[in-house]
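Revision sheet: structure tokens.
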Amino acid sequence: MSLVDYSPSEFDDKVILYGDVFKDLFEVPRYKSGKNLKLLGVIKITYKNGKSIHRAYLGKKGVPGFCKNHVALSHNSIRLLNGNDENADFIDQVTISKGSVFFYFWDHPFHATRISMRLGVISILLTVLLFLLGLCLNLYFN
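Predicted:
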């Protein structure tokens, strides 16, 4: 798919695709996907260098010059995909697939969302570890 640079930063966590691409990826039309539309709408965008990002689906239809083979990402998302290459503002071809909600929030472009996700996962892991340690110590001393 070819890429279009979509500059507004409020779309840093979204990918804009043609409206029918959702049905092709998720095998269900967008209007039938239920109440948790955002949870089902995570798209993985992979560049030829192997880097990938997860973004929320935002469908558009009827935009002049925008067709089914176009993907629109924000400028920051394009720079993340391209990495430290010489021409970091340009990407020609990407591959899209169904994405993971976990990685969408883990590498979210907004700092507060990303940090709260990571702190939540660390808290859950520490809670489980301390619970198991307490259980082992209780069994050992009783």
